Amino acid sequence: MTGESGDFVYRRGDGHAYAKVATALRSEELSGERDRLLWLQGKGILVPEVIDWHVAEDGACLVISAIEGVPAAALSAADLLQAWPSMARQLGALHALDTGQCPFDRSLAPMFARAADVVGRNAVNPDFLSDDERQTPATDLLARVERELAVRLEQEARDRVVCHGDPCMPNFMIDPQTLRCTGMIDVGRLGTADRYADLALMTANAGESWTGLDQAQRATAILFEALGITVPDLGRLDFYLRLDPLTWG
């Protein structure tokens, strides 16, 4: 199978390990995921362990341990809501790590530069855009983000944490019996950033699973309560939700 990155993913016969295989063009990004997994070891965050690493002229292969469970994306809305508090706590544990010790940067300035590059190459993936955004020129979407850039940079400087970078439902693993989070996967975008970069993606992606507004509101309340945020900043949520689709390409 292949992931969003285009890497090929193979599951070992016994189910206890996976191999990610990247082309030469993506070898550096795969090595970045390896480095992030190694950095996370021993820090109380439930992520795969690095088993092996191979690099050659035509690409690279990362072998990692499997996290038991099923992706949160596979759960019913009721089961996801039951699993949600443990997912929030796991994200909170990641956000609580010492940013001064994290060597990986996913801050707003380089992410905006990445978005500008993707838009400049006309490489925005329309699958990541809302229906309204698909009808809007990508240059206009970027300009809308840029108008808020100064204030969001100031907020990031005051509230920077270690972010997962892509905390969507396929990247949370859940024990289907206990409905507790068993870990997080795909940490290739991990780095220090505004916590709202994670919160925007997690709440928006989960929205595809809820069957009613009450579930979405309950999940949002649980998430922010777990992270000690009494008054969510809806403007920041919206900003990062508009920025993220422009950075994939």
Biggest β-sheet description? 4 strands, antiparallel
CA-based shape: globular
Task: Give the rounded overall mean pLDDT.
Answer: 95
Residue share in β-strands = 15-25%
Query: Per CATH, what is the topology of the largest domain?
Result: Aminoglycoside 3'-phosphotransferase, Chain: A, domain 2
**CATH architecture descriptor name of the largest domain:** Alpha-Beta Complex
Radius of gyration, in Å, reads 18 Å
CATH class of the largest domain: Alpha Beta
Unreliable segments of 5+ consecutive residues:
none
Per DSSP E runs of 2 or more residues, the count of β-strands stands at 9
Helix/strand/pairing category: alpha+beta
In CATH terms, the superfamily of the largest domain is: Aminoglycoside phosphotransferase (APH), C-terminal lobe
Taking the alpha carbons of the first and last residues, their distance comes to: 20 Å
**How many DSSP helices?**
9
What is the H-and-E element order?
A: EEHEEEHHHHHEEEEHHH
Oligomer: single chain
Considering DSSP H and I runs of 4 or more, what fraction of the residues is helical? Answer: 40-55%
Q: What is the domain tally?
A: 2
Strand order of the largest sheet: 1-2-4-3
Keywords: Transferase
Protein name: Streptomycin 3'-kinase
Enzyme class: transferase
EC number: 2.7.1.87
Brief rundown of the structure:
By secondary structure, the chain is an alpha+beta fold.
